[in-house]
Amino acid sequence: MKKTIRQYLEEITESVAINEGQKIEKVCAFGIKRVTEPNGWQYRRYPNLCINCFAYAFGLGESDSYRECAYDDALKEQNRQFANSNFVKFLLKHSVIYSTDSVSTGDVIIYCDKEGQPKHAGIVSNLSDTIRSKWGTLSIFEHEKWQVPESYGAQVKYYKPLALEIVEEKFFQWVEKQIGP
Predict the structure, then answer these.
(1) What is the rounded CA–CA span in Å between residue 49 and residue 37?
(2) How confident is the model over 43-66, as pLDDT tens digits?
């Protein structure tokens, strides 16, 4: 049986046999572009491990307070609190983000599994279904909507972006609920 591009991307991103540079090279062989963000924020002061797809999609990579929290927690190896799928579920449960059928550049796309659980997120970079998203500990990539590893989801929904101040406030409210005051 012939593998799909999504299955190949899954193998590449999950492989422990190849290093990060080789993974990026293999991903880009599918016509997916590696993106360098202005100021290179995710590489300068904080390692890739504190910025994931959800932090990137909701703009938390631009937040000093988020990066310090995520980076400090990663160093301590305790109370690790990153913007993850549970954070996205918190935003949805509390009606903080709103879905839209009228997709615009800058909207957030959330990939979900068949049960509707958030698995991945990105940003609409133009109206022809081009998405920018952070892939695990790898880079930010620009890709077509379904040019993502299979585990990133089987369905998508689009949401209007939030102001960074609101995302930060909601993130720290969520963290407080996770670990207490």
Answers:
(1) 16
(2) 444 455 568 899 999 999 888 888
By the 8 A CB rule, do 111 and 148 touch? yes
Q: Where are the alpha helices (DSSP H) in 15-154?
A: 20-28, 41-44, 53-57, 64-76, 85-93
Indicate the pTM of the whole model. 0.88
Provide the residue count of the chain: 181
Displacement of CA 44 from its chain's centroid (Å): 19
- Residues of the chain short of pLDDT 50, as ranges, are 39, 41-46, 73-74
Question: In terms of DSSP H, where are the helices of 15-84?
Answer: 20-28, 41-44, 53-57, 64-76
Task: Answer left, alpha or beta for residue 113, where phi above 0 means left and psi between -120 and 50 means alpha.
Answer: beta
Which residue do the tokens 């994931």 mark?
52
Which pLDDT does position 67 carry in this prediction?
Answer: 80
Q: 152 has which bridge partners?
A: none
Spatial neighbors of 173 by CB under 8 A, at least 6 apart, are: none
pLDDT of residue 180: 67
**Cα angle for residues 95, 129, 31 (degrees, 5° grid):** 130
Q: Is 74 helix (H, G, I), strand (E, B) or coil?
A: helix
Q: How far is CA 119 from the centre of its chain?
A: 9
